[in-house]
């Protein structure tokens, strides 16, 4: 009798437990579906931002890309582009053409994204026109300069209406809430939830935390009104119940298998559509999975990679040692999740620069089973970097040519002096020979030798000036060598003296012989010195002659002893505060005929060497420009590329 009473109760409890488990499983699937779609949108927006920074997407092309992204992803309500001052540049929403305003939470998210240089979501808030929205901000940076943002707005209603399957919404009331459980939007296609089977799942996004709450429309299982009737039915229809239970179990299993096949097919289609390469390895380093994007990246079929232990067929021979070191770190479990750059070898021999993110692969019990890697092909980024470097080199070469053009007249005058002296000394030597020709034995050798030595010295002086100019203006690849500051100052001294003589400026040099050696590109630093000394000399045109003194000094940085500091001091007119704010900006110049690239190129050249360029007011009047350079004995040079 006890068993007959226990059976209905147990059946009710088991059915309730199964319904709750099914609700949790379905809620997890819906949450993963929403998260994956948002991640795909993030990748698309980040790619769009990279192409805007590279200058590829502008005007109609950018408008078309934004429109296509919204057309293919209905959850995105609008996309806009803002400049560095927050003004609207491009928008898919015609209403924003005249009404350029973001909500307060969106503005705060934009400020956080700009400060951290990381894409960020805003807190949900009601738009001016009514619907609840939250924005995704992608900051745009060119180097260290902020140039604007790309902002994508999501309708909270679209998150549930477009991303949640109809069959799930038919059986459950689903709501999107904030961290304080305040309902942002609710979808109840099948009616209000009963409060019997519920589940909450956090939807953590960068900058905002949301919750996905589900409330089933199903009620709790009920016992029959009479246990006696239930007992009679169980006894009379025991066999029918067993068959029914078996049939239900079979159908449930078939439905589960069908759902599993659909989920596997969906995930397979999802992985095949990724442009990011995925690679999984077990704890021994054996490859267990690669997606089609990875196979296409290296030009090797998945079956030729899966199951392999190192060395891998896509490893480049020249970096094999670094690959082995990285693999040892993976096996030892010491790999950090931050990305690193390396190079893969395509099946056709081509080298492919890639960016790899490696993280632990954990199963549903929390146990690590291997490592998961995301691989991005950064060939386009490398090409852009090379193009920027080439443009920078062209600007530097143009600046050197412009500098030489400015001192061309002084250079001609300086060369005329040694050439005239050479002519005089050689004419004197010829006169001696002509005068003493009848008495060859009595030629004054000392006088002749003195004249020829003077002519030779003047010829060497002219040659040194010409060599300095040729070395300075010659276009070449940057090449670092070990040099001392004394050698650097000495090499550029002839050109500095030419400019100083033009304005009657005295030059003082204070370079201690004990300063450490630096590793630098001599021509780039000569260009920096020539630009800074020229600016200093020209700034002293209007001061008294006794104050026209240019000081070039160097010392060990007291704040950072492993650095040396070079200071260029003048006693000129100084730099006004309004000019100082834009002093290093490209194409900004206070000279009528200046290009505005001198100080910008100087700062780029110093930062290329790992140093900094600053300026302060000279207490005696004028300005002091300082730049720091790492000393050779403290500079760690890594000429190898990190590998996987």
What does this molecule look like?
The chain has 644 residues and is an alpha+beta fold. The protein is built from 16 helices and 22 strands. The strands form 5 sheets. Strands 1, 2, 3, 4, 5 and 6 form a 6-stranded antiparallel sheet that branches. The protein has a 5-stranded antiparallel sheet with strand order 12-11-15-14-13. A hairpin with a 6-residue loop joins strand 19 (549-556) and strand 20. The chain is elongated. The model is unreliable at 634-644 (pLDDT under 50). Its EC number is 2.7.13.3. Residues 262-334 form the PAS domain. Residues 410-633 form the Histidine kinase domain. Residues 103-123 are annotated as: Disordered.
Short overview:
The protein has 644 residues and is of the alpha+beta class.
List the helices and strands and how they pair.
Layout: H1 2-53, H2 59-72, E1 76-83, E2 88-91, H3 104-116, E3 120-121, E4 125-126, E5 132-142, E6 145-155, H4 156-163, H5 166-171, E7 172-177, E8 183-187, E9 198-205, E10 208-216, H6 227-236, H7 238-272, E11 277-282, E12 287-290, H8 292-298, H9 320-332, E13 340-345, E14 351-362, E15 368-377, H10 379-406, H11 408-435, H12 445-473, E16 481-483, H13 485-502, E17 506-510, E18 518-520, H14 522-539, E19 549-556, E20 563-569, H15 577-580, H16 598-608, E21 613-617, E22 623-630
Parallel strand pairs: 17-19
Antiparallel strand pairs: 1-2, 1-6, 3-5, 4-5, 5-6, 7-8, 7-10, 9-10, 11-12, 11-15, 13-14, 14-15, 16-18, 19-20, 20-22, 21-22
Helix pairs in contact: 11-12, 12-13, 13-14, 14-16
């Amino acid at each position: 009798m006890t068993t007959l009473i226990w059976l209905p109760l147990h059946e009710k409890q088991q059915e309730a437990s199964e319904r709750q488990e099914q609700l949790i499983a379905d809620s997890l699937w819906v949450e993963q579906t929403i998260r994956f779609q948002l991640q795909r949108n993030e990748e698309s927006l980040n790619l769009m931002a990279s192409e805007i920074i590279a200058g590829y997407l502008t005007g109609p092309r950018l408008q078309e890309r934004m429109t296509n992204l919204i057309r293919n992803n209905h959850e995105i309500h609008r996309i806009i582009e803002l400049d560095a001052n927050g003004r609207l540049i491009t928008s898919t929403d015609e209403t924003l053409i005249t009404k350029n305003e973001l909500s307060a939470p969106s503005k705060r998210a934009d400020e956080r994204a700009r400060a951290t240089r990381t894409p960020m979501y805003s807190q949900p808030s009601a738009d001016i026109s009514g619907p609840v929205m939250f924005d995704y901000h992608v900051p745009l940076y060119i180097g260290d300069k902020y140039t604007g943002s790309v902002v994508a707005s999501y309708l909270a209603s679209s998150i549930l209406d477009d991303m949640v399957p109809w069959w799930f919404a038919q059986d459950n009331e689903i709501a999107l809430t904030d961290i304080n459980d305040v309902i942002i939007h609710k979808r109840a296609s099948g009616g209000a939830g009963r409060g019997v089977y519920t589940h909450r799942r956090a939807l953590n996004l960068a900058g905002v935390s949301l919750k996905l709450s589900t409330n089933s429309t199903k009620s709790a299982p009920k016992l029959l009104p009479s246990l006696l009737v239930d007992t009679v039915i169980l006894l009379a229809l025991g066999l029918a119940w067993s068959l029914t239970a078996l049939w239900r179990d079979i159908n449930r299993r078939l439905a589960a298998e069908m759902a599993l096949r659909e989920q596997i097919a969906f995930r397979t289609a999802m992985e095949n559509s990724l442009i990011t390469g995925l690679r999984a390895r077990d704890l021994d380093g054996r490859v267990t999975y690669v997606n089609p994007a990875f196979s296409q990246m290296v030009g090797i079929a998945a079956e030729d990679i899966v199951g392999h232990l190192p060395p891998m067929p896509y490893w480049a021979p020249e970096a094999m040692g670094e690959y082995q070191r990285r693999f040892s770190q993976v096996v030892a479990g010491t790999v950090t999740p931050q990305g690193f750059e390396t190079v893969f070898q395509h099946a056709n021999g081509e080298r492919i620069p890639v960016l790899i993110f490696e993280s632990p692969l954990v199963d549903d019990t929390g146990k690590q089973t291997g490592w998961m890697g995301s691989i991005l092909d950064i060939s386009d980024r490398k090409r852009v970097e090379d193009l920027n470097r080439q443009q920078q080199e062209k600007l530097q070469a143009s600046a050197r040519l412009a500098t030489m053009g400015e001192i061309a007249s002084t250079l001609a005058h300086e060369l005329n002096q040694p050439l005239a002296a050479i002519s005089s000394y050689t004419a004197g030597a010829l006169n001696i020979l002509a005068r003493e020709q009848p008495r060859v034995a009595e030629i004054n050798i000392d006088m002749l030798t003195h004249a020829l030595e003077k002519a030779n010295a003047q010829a060497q002086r002219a040659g040194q000036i010409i060599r300095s100019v040729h070395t300075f203006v010659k276009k070449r690849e940057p090449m670092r060598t070990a040099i001392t500051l004394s050698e650097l100052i000495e090499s550029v001294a002839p050109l500095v003296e030419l400019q100083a003589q033009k304005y009657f400026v005295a030059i003082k040099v204070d370079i201690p012989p004990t300063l450490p050696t630096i590793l630098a590109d001599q021509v780039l630093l000569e260009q920096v010195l020539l630009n800074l000394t020229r600016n200093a000399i020209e700034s002293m045109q209007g001061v008294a002659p006794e104050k026209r003194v240019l000081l070039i000094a160097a010392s060990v940085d007291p704040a950072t002893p492993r650095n040396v500091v070079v200071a260029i001091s003048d006693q000129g007119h100084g730099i006004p505060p309004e000019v100082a704010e834009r002093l290093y900006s490209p194409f900004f110049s206070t000279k009528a005929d200046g290009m505005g690239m001198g100080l910008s190129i100087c700062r780029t050249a110093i930062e290329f060497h790992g140093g900094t360029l600053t300026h302060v007011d000279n207490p005696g009047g004028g300005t002091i420009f300082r730049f720091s350079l790492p000393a050779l004995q403290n500079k760690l040079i890594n000429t190898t590329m990190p590998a996987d």
